[in-house]
Amino acid sequence: MPGPGPHLMYAMGSGLCLTSISNGRFSPHHTLFYTINAFFGPDVGSFTEWLGSLFGGSAHAFGSALEDLTHHPLFYILLLGLPLSFLYSRISSYLLHTQLLDSLSRVPLTRMQCFLLISAGSFTHFFLDHLFEENGKTTTYTWILSTGWWQSRAPVNPDAVVVVVFLCACLIGGFFYLNRANASNSIKKSHISQCFL
Fold this sequence. Notes:
Blueprint: H1 4-21, H2 28-39, H3 44-55, H4 58-70, H5 73-97, H6 111-132, H7 139-145, H8 158-178, H9 191-196
Helix pairs in contact: 1-2, 2-6, 3-4, 5-6
Transmembrane segments: 74-96, 108-128, 160-179
Keywords: Membrane, Transmembrane, Transmembrane helix
């Protein structure tokens, strides 16, 4: 299973391509919510489980139960799709009215659009997960697993978590900076800058 970096870069890259080929109709709002769900969506349970393991006891049990429920392509959509679609619709309206994020249509995303973006993000997340899994049947996986590095679960290094969080925050911050509503560049003109990002 790939880490958060590949999920984030794949989803943002896909969103950028969709923005380019749709002539801006797939707006930065679409890209943002699609990326959040492809990047962090179904792994919210894994993140909660990791946080719970730091505190132990009932927090770890809650995180483990949440991970079992949400790390599934359909269960994530069925359990969290509706509440998140309401939340994302409100956030989209806020981002548009405060001019933090540009949109060609100048209309916030509807709840149905948000629900569809949540679904697309979940399926994209598992598409990338399944590309890297295959139960060790590929020669590369057999070679990686033969090293014996994983005795049980792969350890989480807190220093690596800080670095990954910093890099992901820079990528999302750069996305907001390039797509802000009061920017002098239009969505199409900022395409090259976004590719460099």
